[in-house]
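ok here's the first one, seq then struct tokens
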Amino acid sequence: MYDKEKSGMNENALEGEEGLSPCTEDVYPDATVKISRDQYSIFEIRRMLKDTKELIIDPEFQRNAVWKIEQERELIESVLMGIPIPIIYVFEEKDGKKQVVDGRQRIHAIVRYLDNEFALDNLKMLPRFNRKRFKELDPLYQSKLERYQIPLYVIEPPTPERVKYDIFDRVNRGGTRLNNQEMRNALYSGQSTSLLKKLSKVKEFQEATGGGVKERRMRDRYIILRFLAFHLWRKKIINFSYKSNPDDFLAEVMKTINDFTPDQIHQLEQWFKQSMVQSFAILGADGFRFEAYNVNRRSINMALFEVLAHFFTLVDIKVTDRSALKKNLVELKRKFDDSGYFKSRVDSTISVEYRFGEVEKLARGRGND
């Protein structure tokens, strides 16, 4: 969706990483964008967030922009004074739940105060409320806070995922712009985001990649998600089609994983760890890199990672000739490097079919599929 400069990437990014190629579509001629305006009282907002779970915010998404206590106190003072606060944006899912995409910290601060988690202090306009928690306010002001109306823009279904990304980017601009994986992490919070975070920390992944995939800008979670998504698709565990559009594809996979059973989540963990262990045993810490043409090591290649990780879920190195397998994989990596499918048009359907077709053919030839 973004070029390298816009997404904050640099020359040390993964080979083939998202965000390095500009989008070829500048408009969405077939998109249906449904946006309605609504408003809720603070009392309703708290109830939707804490009791009915209709409103969803993701604390992990706050990154480095988490408000300081002074900002939270100033917001509560503004509400007590009746000053309007900026409009909040939410995405509404088909089940009616609303994902907050702009205004998370405002809602978080307000709910924290209603839950008596901090006291007001150093107020400029209403110093008489200093050192008071919500429960210590006079009933009149408690009621004023609870009745305060917060305006919302609700982006309703069936707004396409690619349009949601664009809307999310527009309302969250400022400082470093988010890349696609950071947006997915915010939009599809749940089991999928928890799983990606967990897998990015396991020692099997760190060993198999030689620590070469950094967590900055969620690069590590991105390549892990791509492996899981393509693996589930190639094994026909999910019924999505892939048509050269990784954003829609990965969004649907994350939403699907959010509905997985605990056993299915455990299976994904086992597949991933097994793949990393076997890759490290055969190819070492440089298995997901192409051979260097000079003394410098090349970066881990995203497309190579996802296909080799998939391959190592299809074979069992305990029942195969390891030296022969390593020789086959080294030859295949050289073929891949010369093919061009790992450098440009990485996400095209032709490129994806070629890469996975080759590793699956090798797995079948070894009697493991």
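and now the second one, same deal
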Amino acid sequence: MLTIGTLQLKNWLVLAPMSGRTNLPFRLIIKKMGAGLVITEMISAVGLSRGQGKTHTYLDSHPAERPVAAQLFGYETDSMAISAQIAAEKGMDIIDINMGCPVKKVVKTGSGAALMRDPKKAAKILSAVRQSTSLPVTVKIRAGWSPEEANALEIAKIAEDCGADGISIHPRFASQGFSGEADWTLIGRIKRAIRIPVIGSGDITEPSLALKMRSETNCDGIMIGRAALSNPWIFRQILDMEEKGSFDTPDLDDRHRLIMEHYSLLTEYLGENRATNVMRGLLLLYTKRLPSRGFLKGCISEIDGRKRLISAVDRYFGNVREEMESEG
């Protein structure tokens, strides 16, 4: 179990927020796979508070995915507080403040990981959001901006002092992006230094590593991002490994069914054209490590609608089955 503020999750596994990835259809898939908490894509506080474009659609939700957290990013104290209120009104269960995104277009505004370089500003934002809502508030950070500015422990303590109910830490520096190895020892140091729940993240590529991270760091929860894109089953696998010491690997039918389920959800949410474009980008992720991907790569550019997508997917899995049967 993982408890954040007044909210008790059914387990300790969390889907990381990923821009362009953790939209409503994908969150529904991951919740079905067993995650205790899912998080929206990063949402611009400026865009949300000022009603810009379709920013509010990032808060679209469904009862089946509850509980769900809204992740906000921004540098303006007022817009962050207002956005937290909007997210609460839209039915979100947790407000998550992004202080870890290293992407240039985010940090150049002073948001994301750039906030770790300005602890006073970070404290003002945290306090304003805390005062604006009764929902649990969490913060996502990195190890710091760079090895020369390694202040994750300082920011974690500030978050706790400002009333945050939990913190997630990806122990790489913003300057690293996703290169190098995540320093799990930092997760353990933060866990020992603060009283609020600590969620660890970074390099959880297979189920055994989630259990290893929790054992080595004593963290309260595990956050999984990129690995879930090609293996959404990883949440169920971790829970099975924890309970039984082993887990099942999805077979071809499982993968085929999931692709079509995800496409159906995307179509309902985005419409056929946009759903098809999104699914084209997901096909190579869902078939990672399977044979005959050359065929799939070759026909992806020709997929321009539902009929061609279904046909291409059916032909691909038919080819894989034939290849496996001929080899076995």
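notes on #2: Residues 136 and 173 are 26 Å apart (CA to CA). Residues 306-327 form the longest helix (22 residues).
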